[in-house]
Every structure is written in C-alpha cells, then in structure tokens.
Amino acid sequence: MTWPCVFACTPGYLVFCSSLEVELANGQTDSTGPAETWAKIGELDVRFLDWGGDGPPVLALHGLASSANWYDIVAPLLREHFRIVVPDQRGHGQTTNAPAGYDWRTLSDDLAGLLDELELPTVSVVGHSWGGNVAINFAANYPERVERLVMIDGGFLNGRLMPDATFESWSHRVRPRDVSGDREEFLGRLRTQMGAIWSSELERIVQTMVYEDDDGMIQDILRPENHAQVIRAMWDEPSSDTLPRIKCPALIVPAGPAPDRADSEYAVLRRRMVEAAEAALENGRVRWITETIHDIGYHKPGELAEVMEEFFTEGLP
Fold it and tell me: N or C: more exposed end of the chain, with fewer CB within 10 A?
C-alpha cells in the first residue's frame, strides 16, 4: 500500500496529506490525480484539488471534520464530463485554521472568493453532510452563481425538528467524533466500522482529516472551538430558514438505511427531515441511494456519480 506523505502545518504537529495517486472504484489506479493548488482568499490560504477537464465546473464541498479528499473516489468517475474543484474549507484539511468565520455568510464569501480566483462566474455545487448545509447557504446567498445544487446526505438535517429539541441535545448529537488514540488505534476503529469497504485508498483519505500531536496521538484538524461555532450556526440558522430562498434546481441524495433499520426512530426522523426539505425547495426533488452509509462516496461511489451526472446533464443537448 502507499502511505500518505506528511508535512508540518504547526510546529510539533504532523498532518497526513494526500497522495496524487487515486484508486478507482473498480480497483484500478489513476496516477494522474488532481492538481493540488492554493489560493489566497482574504485571510485564508485555501488548499483545493482541481480535477481538470473542459466540462462544466462543479464545486464540491466536504463535510464537517473532513477534507477535500473525501471526493477522491467519486471525482475520477465524473472528470470526463465535468471539471471538479474541491476545496478544504475554512479550518479543515490544509486550509488556514481560522479562529472565527464559521457562520454561513462568511463560509459563502470564502467560496465566492475562490470562484473569483478561478474566474468561474457560475458553477453547480455539491455538498456532503455539513457541506450540504454550506452549499444551500451559498446557493441562497449567491443565487446568480449557482446553476444546480446537490445535497449528499446533508443540507436537510434540522435540530429543531428533533424530539424535545434544545440546543443542548442538538450539540450533544453532533458533538465531535472520537478520534482518540494513536494512528493504529484510530485506523483500527475505522477499519472495524467500515468493514468490507475498507481499503488502502480509504486509509489514505481519512488521514487527511487528522493530525498527529507531539505525543503521537491523533486529533481532528477541525479544532473543538471551531466545531462549536459550526454547531451554533446550524442551530441558530437552520436549513428550514435557508431552503425556501433557493431558486436553482436542487437534488437531495439521502442515504437509505438497511432494511432492518428502516423503521428505527432515527430513520423515521430522517425521512421527515428529507420530506420537509423537499417541500421547502422551490425546485427540488429527492433521489434516495438505498442500503448505504452516510459516507455514500466511500460505499457506493459509482451510483452516486451516476445520480449526479444524470442531474447535471438533464435537459442539456
């Protein structure tokens, strides 16, 4: 297997960065990979992956405590027809770990600045998980710049629709994940959780989201205090306030549970949230990907790519 390279982002801390060799869903290797590039956007040094291509541009946004490399398995399946641009968002991956600015307006301005730098007046936008929330707010705040919108198992989560909804219960539900232990312990937990879909490629990808501290322990790159700002924004300005402002065609792509969990309390609640989001959108629809996990791009990248390509090309000559 190929281990990721390592670079120092803060004295004493090591971050595992991406290799440019990408393993495709069929097990073959794409040695071309994306171009790893940087842009100065206001106070931020933004790292982004540009998968190239001459097709229509697609801005792809990762989830909370994730990185641009989340799309490494999906992007190669789309690059023949689209130019996929994937940034590490503020406080994530190798982009500047800013102490503030995790509100929707600032995050939207970050993206607009990146598009200006790339001279892309309009794009389609994809967001996974929290990235779906960033995507819907960008579409609402910059409607003239977004042609189509895809929300991958995100953008519809609304803490105010949960039973006995309080900020305390909401912040507990979306608290930082457990990344305790050294690298082998961290990878061992994920290897167990992901089971049969685990691969050397996933092992590389997940390490772009964490760093190793002075004691050899793994930590999330997204700092706890910045995670708290994100959770506050999601509560104070929920998706139900944003979705009605979106004018472009929008597709919600939720992850459907396994049959034995389809009637669980959480699965029923998620269906309610998806239905509420679809109803709030002026021009929205839903396409479930069944029997999968939250990280659809890891489990069913081919099906996810097909769904997105079909939506982006609908109505084109």
Answer: C
- CA torsion 142-146-152-157 (nearest 10°) is 30
Sheet of strand 250-253: strand arrangement: 35-41, 44-50, 83-87, 57-61, 123-128, 146-152, 250-253, 284-286
Structural domain range at position 145: 34-159+230-313
Q: Confidence band (pLDDT; 50, 70, 90) for 30?
A: low
- Say if CB 36 and CB 49 are below 8 A apart: yes
Instruction: Quote the number of domains for the chain.
Output: 1
Total residues belonging to the chain: 317
Q: How many whole angstroms separate alpha carbon 189 and alpha carbon 31?
A: 29
- What's the pTM value of the predicted model, to 2 decimals? 0.91
For residues 292 and 15, the answer to whether their CB atoms sit within 8 Å is no
- The arithmetic mean of pLDDT across residues 58-80, rounded, is 98
Residue 39 lies in a domain: yes
> pLDDT digits over 205-235, tens only?
999 999 999 999 999 999 999 999 999 999 9
Q: How many CB atoms lie within 10 A of CB 51?
A: 23
